[in-house]
Specification:
Layout lengths: L3 H21 L2 E3 H8 L3 H9 L7 E3 L2 E5 H10 L8
Antiparallel strand pairs: 1-3, 2-3
Helix pairs in contact: 2-3
């Protein structure tokens, strides 16, 4: 059986890894993803309901968007433009 000090060290390590993950998480909420795309959250929600927009995932009761999926969706809609 692990000693209490070993258990505390493991808990401290887990807490530290969780803290770092929260600060660098690649998943965005609907509000964050909408801001990133220049859309309103309600527009992004409507797109999700219609099966449009970036790929999203249900984590618990909240929808999240991975930054790579947001970028891929945005890049797929690129159009050439005339440069002035």
């Amino acid at each position: 059986m692990a000693s209490p000090s070993t258990d505390k060290g493991a808990m401290d390590d887990t807490a530290e890894r969780a803290r770092r993950a929260r600060g660098t998480c690649p998943f965005l909420t609907t509000k964050q993803a909408a801001f990133h795309l220049g859309l309103s959250p309600s527009t992004l929600k409507g797109m999700r309901a219609r099966g449009e927009g970036p790929v999203c995932r249900l984590h618990g009761r909240a929808w999240h968007y991975h930054i790579d999926d947001i970028e891929a969706w945005s890049n797929a809609g690129k159009r050439g433009g005339k440069r002035g």
